[in-house]
Amino acid sequence: MAEDNNAAANAVANIYRTPELWAKITFTFLCMVIYRVGSHITAPGIDVQALTDYFTRQQGGGLLGLYDMFVGGGLSRATVFALGIMPYISASIFVQIAGAVLPNVDKMQKDEEGRKKLTQYTRYLTVVLALIQAYGFALFTASLPAAVSRPGPWFTIQMMLFLTAGAIFVMWLGEQITERGLGNGASLIIFFSIVERMWPSIFQSFNFVTTGAISPLTLVVLGLVMVAVVAGVVAITVAARRVLIQIPQRTMARGRQREAARNFIPLRINTAGVMPIIFAQSVIVIPGALAQFSGNAKLQEIAEYFNPQGPNPWLYFILSAVLIMLFTYFYTSIIFNPVDLAENLKKQGGFVPGIKPGAKTAEYIEQVVERITLPGAIFLTVIALMPIVIARLVNVPFAFGGTSLLIVVGVALDTMAQMQQHLLLRKYDGFMKKGRVKFRGRQATQGGF
């Protein structure tokens, strides 16, 4: 235990002794403070209590509940950052999918100037999506009883301006974190939004014991389940199938020889990340959203079959599992291109032992990805449905798991990896500087003789 404490203290000391890393962490922290402050400033003209009561009655379910989780509760409080980073995320996903469908966009993604143009197009699309979402949210709040003091066209325009400006500012804040801070700005904004809402849910579990809703033994079992879930998510997030590649000896410029070497291509089991769960949940809540906004009794009856809290949730479980499995394969095929990987490997002179370079290598890699995607898809299905199953078994809400946990663990691991890279770079820089000083000193001494 003492060694672990010393190791942790040394790690913190190393971060503090690395000026560049410490400056990045400080800048990121200040940006997060600004974001969280803005997430508690309410937009004018809205009764927050009426809006909060609605979300409480809905128990955070549906598409709005999912969106509210990603923005740290800003939607249920109608803050100026109610849209959060989600319009930018949605625009980035659209551009990414367009790259897999449109050859011109795919060509732009492989060129430096093209990527700059796509970044600018993503910003424009973010503004358009923010305006559309702000308009929909304004109509939604105006439809709630006593939620808006003065509903009308002016309120709609006002909300569109406030929420769109907030979304643009959050997008700019995320880009600043990515450029000058530590980690991916958009991912960190979602990370802190989810963590802010995760802690109250954990402490709420202890209140269930005091009120007698669950027994202390049940709480202990839930705690063990939480630890096991975190361990499983970490394991699947970092798990990868390593494909052996051989790089032969090659003559470089000026007659230099590059030594033959063996390396590995890591193919992640969960290449799609959390996106299949988000896509599946977005599709499955459509019947409930239509029934809610239309008020049709027949649609509301049909929507009950897609309600996980309803009397018969089996259709929801089956449909969710099927959709998550399908979207896992679909999104993996979009973001992972085995043909490009095989071509790049061929250009470098590398090959997979026993497999011909080019098309055969692409086919082999595609087969491997298809096989390892299956356990990844099954794991995503279990993680997504587990909180609902546990909540039905113990009759209390269980919010630890699913989409939120996958995002939190993934972003935390990526950020820690970047911190480690900065520390290693600093260590090697120091080593090289010392080596140069010693080498120069020895050179001067030899020259004196």
Automatic annotation (TrEMBL):
Signal peptide positions on this chain: none
Location in or out of the cell: Cell membrane; Membrane
Chain segments annotated as transmembrane: 78-103, 124-148, 154-174, 181-199, 219-244, 265-294, 314-336, 372-390, 396-417
Keyword list, A-Z: Cell membrane, Membrane, Protein transport, Translocation, Transmembrane, Transmembrane helix, Transport
Coarse class of the protein's main subcellular location: membrane
One GO CC annotation: plasma membrane
Matches recorded under PANTHER family: SECY/SEC61-ALPHA FAMILY MEMBER
Similarity section: Belongs to the SecY/SEC61-alpha family.
Protein name: Protein translocase subunit SecY
Native source organism of the sequence: Gemmatimonas phototrophica
Gene field: secY
